[in-house]
Amino acid sequence: MFAEDSFERNIRNVDVRIKPDLTGYGMMSFDAVAIDTMLNRGYKAAEEMKEELDAVRRWVGTDTLRLAGPKAIDIDRTPVLIDSIEILGVSGKEADYLRAKLKVHAGDRVSRSDVENALNTIFGKGSYEYVSYDMLGREEPFHLRINCKRGPKHLLGVGFRLDTEELVSLLLNVGLNTTAMRGSSLDMTARIGANPYLDVHYAYETPRWPTFNIRADFRWTDHNNFLMGENRFNVAYLSTTQEVYASNMEWSNFDVKGGLQNTYFNIAHLLASDVIGDYDRSLWKMDYPGVFIDGTAYTLDDGYFPRQGFSAHLRYDLVSRVFDGPGYPGFFGIVSGSGQMPVPIGRRFTLSMLGGFRFIFGDDIPIPFANVLGGEMFGRYVDHQLPFIGINNAAFRRNNLVVLRSDLRYEIYRNNYITAAFNYSRDFYSFRQFETGENLYGFGLGYAYDTIVGPLKALVHWSSMTRKVGAYLSLGFDF
């Protein structure tokens, strides 16, 4: 995010630039022959610049190095006073808007983490290719200058994933005016595969007020490998959700959105001999209007292999049963959340702690809202699915579900990782019956290689539900 601007600026300011011929080698050239060749070419390129280097040595002299100005301040250790904040690469109104969103202001003492959090706030708007900063001045107070490079106004994206569950899935995304911070934008995402969906999102953004959003998605789920207890079952259904909500409402470190929603389910077929949890299988076609509020905080430095930062997600849904008929309760509520925090251990080890929960408050819950557990990613087959190492596909659980997980990851060498994972879950009918709940354990050992088209993963696992060794292979991004 910051490197490109610094690199270009440094090139303009050098006295001697040594540029060896590295044709045929790139950032992934780590074998012994490649390293030896690049070092030799670098040495040869330096020898060819001998006269220029000698001129620099004569100019610098042989005396002991003397500082030409005050010693630099390490803002990692010593916060510094800033008297102003300038934002370049944006219009005057956009600069005022961004400045109001920052948690640092003129007159504050700031550390490096404070400044980088401010940059992440701007970069997180999705409007810029990269964001960098300069701290100008020879002594306090300093002038903070933030440099922004505008990204493309419209976006077109393609992603894919190959795995042992759905074979091939393709993701297509078209965004119109999606990087603008004012006015209308339209974002459309489609997945083509065994369980396709279409998501259409319109937003209208103003500098001072929350963003107004209209969103609708359409999903077809057809799967014959879900689990209910020890029984496999087949389910196929169409679902669509419509939402009208406000977003870009900040609370603490959370980006909050909330509004109205309606979810419609049309269950084509459901074959199962047993259902775990207080779920109702009698309602096959129904609308469920309601309200929701959702908060997300995200500071992870990498989406797949993070070493710093954290993520947290909290959500509350109040769902109406107005269309279910007189024999059903009027409402039921859902409280859910998830989080992740990696802790670096030395240069190569990272301990990542993850967790999630989903509590459903009510009786005879419609089965499309049931808790679902399994797989490596959130929301694999249904939006509220919680991942669990050791269970491929998915398993339905009781009305209250808690999942805890820890991953110990080791970077063998750049972009190559080995991970040992352990997770635990407990599900129960109600908090008064917590002691009668069921515990599940799962273990996994995996290898991953971070490629430009998404991670390549191979995982061997076991769980106390399946009581057998399983495997999962995938290549591509999570979606």
Task: Outline the structure in words.
- With 479 residues, the protein is mainly beta.
- It has three domains: 3-60, no CATH class; 80-150, Roll (Ubiquitin-like (UB roll)), CATH 3.10.20.310; 155-476, membrane protein fhac: a member of the omp85/tpsb transporter family (Porin).
- The chain has five helices and 24 strands.
- It has helices spanning 3-13, 32-48, 50-60, 92-101, 112-123; strands at residues 80-88, 109-110, 128-136, 142-150, 155-163, 167-176, 183-192, 197-205, 211-228, 231-251, 254-271, 279-280, 285-298, 311-320, 331-345, 349-361, 365-366, 371-373, 394-397, 400-413, 416-428, 438-451, 454-463, 469-476.
- A 16-stranded antiparallel barrel has the order 5-6-7-8-9-10-11-13-14-15-16-20-21-22-23-24. A four-stranded mixed β-sheet has the order 2-1-4-3, sandwiched between helices. Strands 12-17 form a two-stranded parallel sheet.
- Strand 6 and strand 7 (183-192) form a beta hairpin.
- The chain is globular and about 90 Å long.
- Mean pLDDT is 86; it is low at 227-231.
